[in-house]
Protein 1
Amino acid sequence: MTTVLPGGTILAGKITVVTGGSTGIGRAIAQRFVAEGAYVFITGRRQPELDAAVDEIGSNVEGIRTDSADLGDLDALYRTIRQRKGRIDVLVANAGGGVAGPLAEVTEEVFDKTFGTNVKGVLFTVQKALPLLAEDASVILTGSTNSLRPGPDLGVYAATKAAVRNLARSWIIELGASGVRVNVLSPGPTKTPGLLGLAPAGQEQTLLDGLVAGVPLGRVADPAEIANAAVFLASDQSSFVNGIEFFVDGGQAQI
Ligand SMILES: NC(=O)c1ccc[n+]([C@@H]2O[C@H](COP(=O)([O-])OP(=O)(O)OC[C@H]3O[C@@H](n4cnc5c(N)ncnc54)[C@H](OP(=O)(O)O)[C@@H]3O)[C@@H](O)[C@H]2O)c1
């Protein structure tokens, strides 16, 4: 069963940014934010995926091609947002990913790429947004159950998500007085192109079956279920929620 709540007005008037909003979890969050009345800027590196997401979401959405690991791209992104809307109410630093591989096979390229997007990218996505953040802005960092429970062969990826979780702890101390909240949203296994891409071709179902075994609810998530939690963290309904790691994982990391 997938829980897709009907649209509402809980994010009415909010200017939001979802990095990595062209596919998977980011796209579901962007779609849901628009359904709740927000205006959404989405980013990604591949223009066709970005265009397809904008077409599907339909209105109150703009795609801006951005590599989160590229500081010049981030500057251009925020220049555009400043010109177009002048502020950011909700920032979802979601762009990320990784590849599986045992310690013995980790290459410098894999390390740099994974940390480049998942840690450096998240840090500068937030740092460069600071001048635009509204007084009561909500910053949401996409983490992972791997921050607590690194799976086999996911050491590098898991380390990036542990770093993200700790950045949030640090940032709430720095930003609290300004009223800006920072929370980590940590999905369990969620059926997205990114997750399925971890499987060798043709072995996607085997990968999913293996993951389901570790989830008390006995299934993987639909991206819309992660988006439901993102709406809560983005909205004023979570106005005193700050610095948490919000697991949306069917119980995976809780046992
Ligand atoms: N799916 C899961 O089971 C799961 C579980 C826990 C956490 N997560 C986290 O959830 C987030 C989204 O993952 P997903 O499963 O939805 O993956 P996905 O389907 O592969 O989506 C990733 C999105 O991020 C974008 N992206 C990747 N690298 C980027 C970069 N350097 N700059 C800008 N955009 C970039 C991708 O577009 P381009 O490739 O075109 O740039 C795409 O829009 C990630 O942070 C991931 O670690 C996923």
Note: Residues 19-20, 22-26, 43-46, 49, 66-69, 94-97, 117, 121, 142, 144, 187, 189-190, 192-195 surround NAP (CB under 6 Å).
Protein 2
Amino acid sequence: MSEKEYIIFWFRRDLRLLDNVGLSKALAQGKSVLPIFIFDNNILHKLPKDDPRVNFIYNTLQNLRQELNNKYKASVALFHGNPLDIYKDLIKSYKITAVYTNHDYEPYAIKRDKEIYDFLREKNILFKTFKDQVIFERNEIVKADGNPYVVYTPYMRKWKETYRRLSLNSIPKVDNIGNFISDIDLPNVSLHDLGFINATIKAPEYDDSPKIIQEYEVTRNYPAIKGTSLLSLHLRFGTVSPRLIIKKAVKEENETFWNELIWREFFMQILWHFPHTVTKSFKEKYDRIVWRNNEEDFKKWCEGKTGYPLVDAGMRQLNKTGFMHNRVRMLVGSFLCKHLLIDWRWGEAYFAEKLLDYEMASNVGNWQWVAGCGVDAAPYFRIFNPTTQITKFDKDLKYINQWVTDLNELTYPLPIVEHKAARERCLNAYKEALN
Ligand SMILES: Cc1cc2nc3c(=O)[nH]c(=O)nc-3n(C[C@H](O)[C@H](O)[C@H](O)COP(=O)(O)OP(=O)(O)OC[C@H]3O[C@@H](n4cnc5c(N)ncnc54)[C@H](O)[C@@H]3O)c2cc1C
């Protein structure tokens, strides 16, 4: 092992060079920086072999390697295994003085990082972590008494007030690029090495143009039009900078778009303060609901065969593309929990498996919102009517016709539940649990 000292920068949910806080800090130390990414077996082994998210990460990393190679004669080292074992090997090959990385707030990541921190500390290696994927994290936005906000609107107001007060609108550049390790032959892996194959589902391009942001209010509720940014996947994996996107929202003066981005941070701080909500309802008594959990109904919901065209269109869009419009996510979620009386956790798990933009905090938060059991959730007795939702949001049936091509055929299923009866059944089940 050479005596040269290195700093590792560990990429995780921040797969970009621009405005990457941990990476800029690592490069600013004046030592050679070895960028790495670990395909973590603890996560990969649960995923289907053609998982499009693994493909997306993989392709993004190959592009990053190419970009670093072309611009700076550098690269990213790719590993596959258990992160702790990878670190045990790395310290045998390089004299490492510090590992820099960005915060991850999910329960598994917190536990993993603690393990790595303990291991490195024993070896006298620093483990330095930074806030990167949000503007405000953990307890940076809390009530005057120090307690977390569990209602969105006051959180959002405080968030904006703090953002303005601190003038947080500058975007750091990638400086000190000469400090990347000058080695273009760093370890690589193939998709095949990881046990995966090419996915048929591809990631959508995002659109953060002024037009999309300025017209957001008018367009965002209609699933048939391209009226939202499709940024979710990119914010999830950090292929765009959250600071840059917020800055654009502020510049275009679109409060609604800005508010949606703040929902993302709201749910992240909820997950951090209340990690038990991954499996338990935030409002405890909602866990007394006696769900029907009928497996056949669940299967029909998953396949988009409920006989309710807007619900079916949403589920078929999800199955075919890994994406579903937010309006329709709210409807299919409500339909599952309320019309079919199936536990929100089943829906949450199905979305986690299928959504390209799956993000634990947003998924759990929104599912609990839909079921009525979460923070700042809609009252449980407000039940979407799956038919009038069509009149409101897809009156020309454009979206439905795109995904439910058998709508007018005899094979298209009859509704699996009758709306009024299902509504009554739901209200009774909720009332019984909550009284
Ligand atoms: C049941 C259900 C499950 C969901 N699961 C996820 C998930 O796993 N991952 C995820 O990113 N979003 C989730 N959402 C929120 C929302 O549907 C998606 O963020 C949005 O549809 C993504 O499309 P977009 O990027 O075009 O959003 P835009 O409408 O363009 O919004 C811009 C960004 O704001 C954020 N955002 C918007 N709405 C929400 C919201 N309700 N909660 C949190 N952040 C929001 C996202 O980061 C989004 O990319 C879920 C919503 C529901 C109702």
Note: The pocket of flavin-adenine dinucleotide is lined by residues 220, 228-232, 235-236, 260-261, 263-264, 267, 326, 329-330, 333, 351, 355, 357-359, 362-363, 366-367, 370 (CB under 6 Å).
